[in-house]
Amino acid sequence: MNQHQTNKLAWEEAYENRKDGWEPEEVAERIRNQPDCYLEPELLEALDDINLKSATVAQFGCNNGRELLCMFSRGVAKGYGFDIAENMIQAAAKSAELLEMDCEFVATDIFEIGEEWTERFDMVLITVGAITWFEDLRQYFEIVARCLKQNGIVVLQDMHPITGMIGVKGEERYAESEPEKILYSYFRKEPWIETDGIGYMTGKSYSSKAFTSFSHTFSEVINAFAQNDLFVERAEEYDKDISELFDAIEGKGIPLSYLLIGRKKY
């Protein structure tokens, strides 16, 4: 069993331990009342400059579909969400049904997205935490580029790579008196293996199946774009925490998140 398969089991377990607010009915009701509620303000600001009216948009690593469903507030006509966790895909489909949105969800490993999806999308959306589960970013963005139409756009919003150097609450070396202290190498190659669950989804720490993730430098992300003819049109960095992990150092001049927009030219 490879790391993607073990992560699948861990994510499905996490969703089974979900806290209030994650039920399809709750997600649908919140989007019905505030159509873009699950999208970060910085992402919404960037989307204002992209014409998505009648567009077909995919999200790689769509989780329970809540962010992709919010994209319909920008004029999107059709959505496709891809995620490895089957129970989250089922929940996403239920939310779309309740909202009567034209959105299809597919349970698959991103690396196994087939040729039938080649040049299907005007935009691919990738949000916080999605790429950390993949060691090979060149292969990841090769699939993104293949699935985009010519002149299609990829929008990536994520935690800044520098956050991989900083500890978080609950880690043995973390000190509340020095929340910004550097504990790890920026160039770390060995994977992170965690067995204490996914707190933002469950609201608790629990003994879980193993999650395996990887750190990537900013240059690795940029190079993965370039190697796949995805030309960066916009790059922004923020000292805003979008991960719920670094609130103690938010707004203090440390880069905590970033946004990249690339376009497929060939």
Written account of the structure:
The protein has eight helices and nine strands. The relative contact order is 0.16. It is α/β, with parallel strands linked by helices. The chain has helices spanning 3-16, 24-33, 41-47, 66-70, 86-99, 137-147, 199-202, 218-226, and strands spanning 56-60, 78-83, 103-107, 121-126, 148-159, 192-194, 211-213, 230-238, 257-264. Helices cover 28% and strands 21% of the residues. The termini are far apart. α2 (24-33) packs across α5 and α6 crosses α8.
Order of helices and strands: HHHEHEHEEHEEHEHEE
| End-to-end Cα distance | 36 Å
Beta-strand residue fraction: 15-25%
Compute the number of helices.
Answer: 8
Low-confidence stretches: none
Mean pLDDT, rounded to whole units? 96
CA gyration radius, whole angstroms: 18 Å
Oligomeric form:
single chain
* Biggest pleated-sheet summary: 7 strands, mixed
Structural class: alpha/beta
What is the tally of beta strands?
9
Query: Which bin fits the share of residues in helices?
Result: 25-40%
Strand order of the largest sheet: 3-2-1-4-5-9-8
| Principal-axes shape call | globular
